[in-house]
Automatic annotation (TrEMBL):
InterPro entries in the cross-refs: GlcNAc_PI_deacetylase-related (IPR003737), LmbE-like_dom_sf (IPR024078)
A GO molecular-function annotation: hydrolase activity
One Pfam short name: PIG-L
Name of the protein in question: PIG-L deacetylase family protein
Keyword Zinc: yes
Highest classification ranks of the organism: Bacteria, Bacillati, Actinomycetota, Actinomycetes, Pseudonocardiales
The keyword Zinc appears for this protein: yes
Sections of the chain in a coiled coil: none
Length: 238
C-alpha cells in the first residue's frame, strides 16, 4: 500500500469512536486506538447497535448480550473503558433525525476533539458493497458533529443537560476508499490483534479457522504497508 499520505494531525486529547456494530472498530482502527490510549489520550466508544443480527445460528436476544460482552472486552484490550450502546436495531439502522439526535447527545457527552467513524461510502473497494448500517451511521455521525455544536438543533438535549459542543476539530473516516491521511501504528498491531480476537463468537460464526489466526491475518492486512511499517488510513474532514 502507498505510503505517500500526510500524517493524521495529533493535536487532540479526546476521541469519540462511533461504529454501527461490535467488531467494526477492530478491523485495523483499534491499532490507532491503542496508540492513542498509550499516549494518554481519552477514547470513548459508541456502538449504534448491539450486533444482534450478526450471528446466523444465534437468536438476536442472546447474540446481543454475547456481542456486547465481546465488544467491552475488545475495547479494554486497547485501553478503552467507556463503551456505550444506543440500541438501534441491527441491520435496519435508519439514517434520520433520531439517529442524529442520539449521536449528537454522545458527542456533547464525550466532548471529543476527534471523531472517528467507519466508512459511509457505498463500497469498501471494487466488488465489496458496504452495508446499509455502515453507510447510515457514517453519514449520520458526520452530520451529528455539526448538530452537536448548534444550540438550536435538538434543543431538548440542552434540557437534558447536554450543552452544545463545537470543539470537534476533524472527523476521521476509517476504511474509506478515499483516504487523505495516515497514522503510523508500528508497535500496536499486536494490541489490535488481541482486541479483534475478543470477538470469538462472531469470528467463529464467520470462519471455522482459529480466531487468533483470523485476527492476525485481518489486522496485518489492513495496517500493513509496503515499507515494512504499519499504518491506519483515514479520510479526514475538517
Amino acid at each position: 500500500m502507498s505510503t505517500d499520505l500526510p500524517a493524521l494531525p495529533d493535536d487532540f486529547a479526546r476521541v469519540l469512536a462511533v461504529a454501527a456494530h461490535p467488531d467494526d472498530l477492530e478491523y485495523g482502527t483499534a491499532a490507532a486506538v491503542a496508540a492513542w490510549t498509550a499516549s494518554g489520550r481519552a477514547v470513548s466508544y459508541v456502538l449504534v447497535t448491539r450486533g444482534e443480527a450478526g450471528i446466523a445460528d444465534m437468536p438476536p436476544e442472546k447474540a446481543a448480550a454475547v456481542r456486547e460482552d465481546e465488544e467491552r472486552r475488545s475495547a479494554a484490550a486497547v485501553g478503552v473503558h467507556d463503551v456505550r450502546f444506543l440500541d438501534h436495531r441491527d441491520g435496519v439502522v435508519v439514517e434520520g433525525i433520531d439517529l442524529r439526535r442520539d449521536l449528537a447527545r454522545e458527542i456533547r457527552r464525550a466532548r471529543p476533539e476527534l471523531v472517528v467513524v467507519n466508512s459511509h461510502h457505498e463500497t469498501f473497494g471494487a466488488g465489496a458493497w458496504n452495508s446499509a448500517d455502515h453507510r447510515a451511521v457514517g453519514r449520520a455521525t458526520i452530520d451529528a458533529v455539526g448538530d452537536a455544536g448548534n444550540r438550536w438543533i435538538f434543543p431538548e438535549l440542552v434540557d437534558e443537560g447536554f450543552e452544545p459542543w463545537d470543539g470537534v476539530k476533524r472527523v476521521a473516516v476509517a476504511a474509506s476508499t478515499q483516504p487523505t491521511h495516515a497514522m503510523d501504528v508500528t508497535g500496536y498491531q499486536e494490541a489490535a490483534i488481541a482486541s479483534l480476537s475478543e470477538h470469538a463468537a462472531y469470528l467463529t460464526a464467520l470462519d471455522p479457522r482459529p480466531v487468533a489466526e483470523q485476527a492476525r491475518e485481518v489486522v496485518l492486512m489492513t495496517t500493513g504497508d509496503d515499507d515494512g511499517r504499519a499504518r491506519v488510513r483515514f479520510e479526514v474532514f475538517g
